[in-house]
Amino acid sequence: MIYGAMKFSIGGSLKLAFRPWVEGLENIPERGPAILASNHLSFSDSFFLPAVLDRKVTFIAKAEYFTSPGVKGKLTAAFFKGVGQLPVDRSGARGAGEAAIRAGIQVLESGNLFGIYPEGTRSPDGRLYRGKPGGLARVALATGAPVIPVAMIDTEKIQPPGQVVPKLMRPGIRIGKPLDFSRYQGMDGDRFILRSVTDEVMYEIMKLSGQEYVDIYATAAKRQLADEAKARAEEAKRERKQAAAGNENG
C-alpha cells in the first residue's frame, strides 16, 4: 500500500521531470525472483530504476535511515520504506555483508526482485570498478535466481557532489538479458566461482554502460583519491609557508 503510493508519487514525478529513457524492459520477468545487478553512479540510481519498472524492486539501505529520532527521522523512515528500501545493520564490515546477503536471499525466496550494486559503493569518477564477489555471487548461487545486468547512464550528472539543485536532463537505463548461473548453485563457498560469476556480470554491465573499466575496487579508488587530495593540500601549505618565509627574508 505504502510502496504503491510512494511509487506513484515519486516515480511519476521523476518520470515527468527527467523523462528517463529505457532499453530492455522486456528482460524483466513479469513474475518470479530475479537479481538486478547495476552500476552505481548516483544516490538517485535507487529511485530511477524502480520508477521505470512495473514491479517492486528492493535495495539495501543503512539501518540508520530507519531509526533516526524525531519527526524528520520518522518521515525519512517512511520514505525509504515506501520506495522499497530494506534496512540492514551495517555495524562491522563482515556483519554488514552477511546481513545484506541474508536480506537478499529472503527477498528472492519471496519471489521478488532484489537490486544490488556489485561495486559496493558509488563510482568516484564515473568509471566502472571491480565487482565485490561476496554479495551478488553468493545470493545468486544460494537462490538460483537469474542475474539481470543493468546500466545507469548519466545519473551522476544530474546532481554532482556539492550541487544542491538537480539538473533537469534525461538519464538512461539499459537492461540486459538475464544471466543463468544455476550450474554453479551450491558452490557459493568456492571463491574462484564467486569471482568468475561476479566478473561475468561486470563485463555485461560494462558493455551496456560503455564505461571505462578499472580493475580495482571503488573503495580503494576513493582512498587513493583522498590521499592524493591530502597530498596536494599539504604541498600547497608548504608552498605558502615557503613563500611567506621568503617575503619575510626579503
UniProtKB/TrEMBL annotation:
GO terms for molecular function: acyltransferase activity. Residues 227-242 have a biased composition (Basic and acidic residues). SUPFAM superfamilies: Glycerol-3-phosphate (1)-acyltransferase (SSF69593). CDD domains: LPLAT_AGPAT-like (cd07989). Pfam families: Acyltransferase. Keywords: Acyltransferase, Transferase. Residues 227-250 are annotated as: Disordered. Residues 34-155 form the Phospholipid/glycerol acyltransferase domain. This is 1-acyl-sn-glycerol-3-phosphate acyltransferase.
